[in-house]
Amino acid sequence: MKYINEEKINNLLADASKVDCRKLDLILAKARSLQRLSLNESAVLLSVNDPEYIQKIFNTANFVKDTIYGRRVVLFAPLYISNLCVNSCLYCGFKTDNINLKRKALATSEITQQIQWLLRRGHKRILAVCGEAAPAGQSNIDYYIQAVKTIYAAVIGKHRIKRVNVNCAPLSVSDFKKLKASGIGTFQIFQETYHDQTYRQMHLSGPKSDPDNRISAPDRAFAAGIDDIGIGALYGLYDWRFETLGLLSHIEHLEEEFKVGPHTISVPRIEPAEGSELSFNPPYRISDEDFKKVVAVLRLSVPYTGIIMSTRESATMRDALLNLGVSQVSAESSTSPGGYSDNREASAGSQFSLGDNRTIEEVVASLIAHDYIPSFCAACYRMERTGDAFMQLAKPGTIKGKCSMNALVTLKEYLDDFASAKVKASGYKMIERYFNQLDNVDQKMLKLFFNHVDAGIRDEYV
Ligand code: SAM
Ligand code: SF4
């Protein structure tokens, strides 16, 4: 597979377990100073088995996360626009040979209904997801673009979606240009596995069976001017240490080629999917403890890259991972096209089952209870603070003050407009406490924004 040197990864992993405590302490000290780690150093941390050192890795990840991102956690919801697919990924419920799946591609009016349902519950950020195929008579790219435009156009009162990210099949440079022009935020694509042989075994037919076309999709997106990219690996297909070093090698390639790495990383674990035997018994299932290590080591290896956690994980696991470096979480997700409805039975077949079925309000309440500020902010994207411009602000820590301020303003908007009395009470208390506590925030401006929210003005940001 392009960009991935398997021999190098295997050698690094073989050598990593021989490392002594002194070397480990040096690596953790380097991570604590917010420096990006080398592949070799990441391999060493992934190979730690001593519980005392694992705890040290966790503590350092928590420190790095708090130092760079502060206490805010961004919320989003996926919108599955279609489950039509020409590929046959062995782990996925949407695979083309799953003949029992109820197939559906949402029409424009249905997308609007779905978004209105999400807007009524307070959502502001969407990840549009789909299989690799479009309804008859339409090209994939035209279908995606129409969906993105429809999502942005939907309104409920003063509320509309602020940012649409897209997780779809690889495109050509010219199609990526069209996708960018439709106003997307992040283009997200997971390599699934960085192990060549496993990749070929898992993707037997369809365009996705070419690993090089997939791994080079972010290059084409960058070439088309999309500088906000999300990548990921699907844990459970191959050895988790190898996959993590594969992911980091992919990031190294992007940094070398484009001077900026991905904006976000995702680390989905395989969940049971009706119609996919493999998903019920993944060949390399990763334990909860090792999964936590993956998240913590990623936080230390690429401290300025966001880490996304979906509702594939249970509520308890998601809460634990927040301390280890996760910066974005989805809430109240459905993985079936048409799934956002008070009658979920009526929707089409789902991609996989979820580990966390809490409502957005329950997720907000839980974040507040764990002292994390739920954020509905999309300011960076709207102010064009993406790609290298974002990294220049993120590295000296400048972004943290803006993020905290936008998080508190968007939280107040959410509480005023959508929350129950109980969540309002805990949320307002949190806002008051952080208003007095945050030292890198312009209090005068924040107060002004709060007054504006009280006066009914929405969607102000810095
Ligand atoms: N069809 C496009 C593709 O494959 O890139 C985009 C959408 S696909 C629905 C999004 C992601 O879902 C895949 O990249 C894969 O990592 C993940 N996925 C597929 N089956 C899964 C399963 N059983 N459990 C968890 N995640 C799964
Ligand atoms: Fe289709 Fe994506 Fe599922 Fe593969 S992972 S079957 S490409 S929807």
Write the CATH fold name of the largest domain: TIM Barrel
Radius of gyration: 21 Å
Bound molecules: S-adenosylmethionine, iron/sulfur cluster
| Main sheet characteristics | 8 strands, parallel, barrel
With strands numbered from the N-terminus, the spatial order across the biggest sheet is: 1-2-5-6-7-8-9-10
Low-confidence stretches: none
Number of strands: 11
Highest-level CATH class of the largest domain: Alpha Beta
Terminal-residue CA separation: 42 Å
Determine the CATH superfamily of the largest domain. Aldolase class I
User: Please, how many domains?
Assistant: 2
Shape: globular
SS content category: alpha/beta
| CATH architecture classification of the largest domain | Alpha-Beta Barrel
Percent range for β-strand residues: 5-15%
Quick check: average pLDDT? 93
Number of helices: 20
- Percentage of helical residues? 40-55%
Q: Could you explain how this protein is built, in words?
A:
This protein has 462 residues and is of the alpha/beta class. The chain folds into 2 domains: 66-394, Aldolase class I (TIM Barrel, Alpha-Beta Barrel); 399-454, no CATH class. It is 48% helix and 11% strand. It is built from 20 helices and 11 strands. The strands form 2 sheets. The chain has an 8-stranded parallel beta barrel with strand order 1-2-5-6-7-8-9-10, surrounded by 7 helices. Strands 3-4 form a two-stranded antiparallel ribbon. The longest helix has 21 residues, at 398-418. The mean pLDDT is 93. Residues 85, 87, 89, 92, 94-95, 131-132, 208 line the site of iron/sulfur cluster (SF4). Residues 85, 87, 89, 92, 94-95, 131-132, 208 line the site of iron/sulfur cluster.
